[in-house]
Amino acid sequence: MMTNRFDGKVVLMTGAGSGLGRSAALQAAKEGAKLSLVDLNEQGLEETKQAIMEVAPEAEVLLLTANVAEEEQVKKYVDDTVAHFGRIDGFFNNAGVEGKQNLTEDFGSDEFQKVISINLNGVFYGMKYVLAVMKKQGSGSIVNTASVGGIRGVGNQSGYAASKHGVVGLTRNSAIEYGQYGVSIKAIAPGAIMTPMVEGSLRQMGGENWEEVGKEFVQPNPMKRFGKPEEVGYLVAFLLSDQANFINAAVIPIDGGQSYKY
């Protein structure tokens, strides 16, 4: 039975043009949310909106193009959301990249800065401007996308692991600061979820044989499979809802048990 947890509520999501962002947007739309969707990929955003219209034709959806690594563009997507809807009740701070794979000594400095600028700076900018809105409202919920790579090491991914550990730190620190204002802040730590980004990583490792590489990749996982984007979408929708308001400063793995195995 479908709930209406988001009736009358405004939910802002970054990285909404594909993957986890699209799945979370679909779930929130089904539950009555008004959506402000942000991505650098305009076509991806349009495809997400089309998918939403198929499952929630009455949904109100605002599409905004922005590079989350640019602070002024982040401020603008927040300002545009407030100008259109009047408030922000939930924020899925999700946009990110994986970056190239290499040993730390061979990891390019420019590549490292690129990953940090999107995954960590972009999350910080989003929190900076959304928190000001939520503090003024006296309510709100933020879910940041961290990673299993934010709570344990990930070989050959120095930039990614560093950025996601930073997201965990930002989440916990801001949760301590803003709980008194009625704002709850948490992070999810996905493992291997079959999104376009994960497929790209597998292609880096295996080329034309990436599907076989994927089958081997998930064998150490207790559940022996990749997660599904919609499984993350269900979790994000719950965490953004009032039902999860007292969950604050938590980092919640959704990884089939991967982070607990070793």
Automatic annotation (TrEMBL):
It is an enzyme of class 1 (oxidoreductase). Its EC number is 1.1.1.-. GO terms for molecular function: oxidoreductase activity. InterPro entries: NAD(P)-bd_dom_sf (IPR036291), SDR_fam (IPR002347). The keyword Oxidoreductase applies. One of its GO terms (biological process) is bile acid metabolic process. Pfam families: adh_short_C2. Keywords: Oxidoreductase. Gene3D superfamilies: NAD(P)-binding Rossmann-like Domain. PANTHER family: DEHYDROGENASES, SHORT CHAIN (PTHR24321), ESTRADIOL 17-BETA-DEHYDROGENASE 8-RELATED (PTHR24321:SF8). Belongs to the short-chain dehydrogenases/reductases (SDR) family. This is Levodione reductase. It comes from Bhargavaea cecembensis DSE10. The lineage of its organism: Bacteria, Bacillati, Bacillota, Bacilli, Bacillales.
